[in-house]
Amino acid sequence: MNYLPLFTALPLLGAFLIPLLSKIWERLSDIISNVITTLLLILSVYSLFLLPIFGKVYVYEIGKWAIKPIPLGIVFTFDNLSLLMVLVINLLSFACSLYSITYLDNYTARWKFWTLFLLMVAGLNGVAITGDLFNLFVFIEISAISSYALVAFGVEKEDLEASFKYQIIGEIAGLTILLAIALIYAKTSTLNMADIANTFAKESKGPLFWFIISLLTFGFLIKSALFPFHFWLPDAHSQAPAPISAMLSGIFIKVVGVYALSRLIFNIFGLNRLNASHYFNLLLILGIFSIVIAGFIALKQENYKRLLAYSTISQVGYIFVGLGLANFWSITGALSLIFAHALGKGLLFLTAGPVEKEAGSLDIHLLSNFKKRMSFYGIVYTLGALSLAGIPPFLGFFPKIFLILGAIKGKRFEVAIILGIFSLLTLAYLLKITNKVFTKKEGEEVKGVSSIVISFLFLVFLIFILGLFYLNYLEPNLISKATEAVISGVEYARLVLIK
Amino acid sequence: MLPYLGCIILFLIGIYAILTKRNLIKIAIGFCLLEYSVNLFFAFIGYKKDALAPIYANLSQARNFVDPIPQALVLTAIVIGLGTTALLLSVALRIYEKYKTFDIKEIKRLKE
């Protein structure tokens, strides 16, 4: 598996080549970036089959700075949790880049889009595979800066305003994380995550330890837009171009927020329900607040993408409820929800693109008076919405069941009831769009456009087929192994350092 | 202890500017102060009293060196900060072109 650096090197190479080569022929940028996202998808699916051969974790030492006697060099560590994230990132970035070939006809300067897009993919992949704390910060910033620029890509008044807000909030989060990293370095004199885990395991958990944890939690909760840090998300995610909304909502907040936080609290600081029950209760309560408040706000939204953005906050709440319960079932549910929500919400945000192009607006009230029929987009949207709300044959059904099972196992019956009831609310607000925008239409049918249709079919196929094979294939081969990687806690350090 | 106190004061001034100022450029300056305070803090961590700069050819005997790693990390963080500040200011200028004002009270087209 020594191809591991390619996950970041390939998109960085593409981001470098595109500005040079697109001067020759602008369409070349489409080809380069789609070839790269396809290669990344192939690599990540290949890793799915290759990782079991190497055991639970594969360590790549950059520049052959061996980490065994003294961990000095930067390492990439690839375990089952990283595998899950890399797979989700590259599935969705493949679909989004395919989609953008046609979608970008609405914009000028397509090579700038592709450069930023590939930088974002590079950063996200880097966050998922890195084993070095400062490297983690650098990759977070790479993906964050390109996402700020991408939110403002349309350079309309609203886009710029959203981007400015997003940038200030995102950078405050970034600097808080940097401050926490500085404190960790001051305390442990190392940046290797496994070594940090070992050092902290030997020491007692004093006030400084909890101060570091709270700084990190503050930073990563802003990045993952959990209530009460959610206020920037609806602006940024609703003003970005459609494929970028899909990327941001689908994977960005989960990789940079949820993945990075859970890697740190479970694997590095070794927190679990037994030694830090207050901390997990906090996550649980914030998760429930997110589900309830964002769910109700979503219900009364009058803008297509704002509604979906609030729905994202509510679904992030589900993921944090899973992490907060912190037992095997609930974390399986949270990780499956990361997978299912990335594909489902990605699909929903992508449908906003052609709808906005046809109707010229995303106001649900205006769209309900729009006369043309958009039955293909309507069907695609509804399938995605059904999956997100957790209707049985689709992928989104299983995470909700696992979360409810996790709540029951953790003796939190009230949580199980809230999760069940608010799944219905999810269905209600998502089908509001189906009901108002896609049904009861007369007049001519809107024709689908080539690459957009292919990306929709790809995502719908995945949602359907992964739903069918969830219990037989996906859960035992990918998600339960990733859950084990989370649950086993500081075992991560042992696996990385002592091979 | 005093330099760390300076760091914290700088951090608080930055937060104050971001929270209370209405001008986009002043918010950007507040953000820069915030960033400098974190960078400064990071640089302080490597400091040791009466230690030498970590450049030494003859390492036959033990010497008391300052920790060079925070300096290298701060350099990286400064470069990242340069990127974000440049982007922040260019977005602010674009906003000025569109709205003809830097006042955030008047830049509020995004409401529920």
Describe the structure.
The complex is a heterodimer of chains A (499) and B (112). With 499 residues, chain A is mostly helical. Chain A has one domain. Helices cover 75% and strands 2% of the residues of chain A. The radius of gyration of chain A is 21 Å and the shape is globular. Chain B has a single domain, classed as Helix Hairpins (Orthogonal Bundle). The radius of gyration of chain B is 20 Å and the shape is elongated. The chains are: A mainly alpha (499), B mainly alpha (112). At the A-B interface, helix 5 and helix 6 of A face helix 2 and helix 3 of B.
Entry summary:
The complex is a heterodimer of chains A (499) and B (112). Chain A has one domain.
Question: What would the keywords be for this entry?
Answer:
heterodimer, A: 499 residues, mainly alpha, 2 strands, globular, B: 112 residues, Helix Hairpins
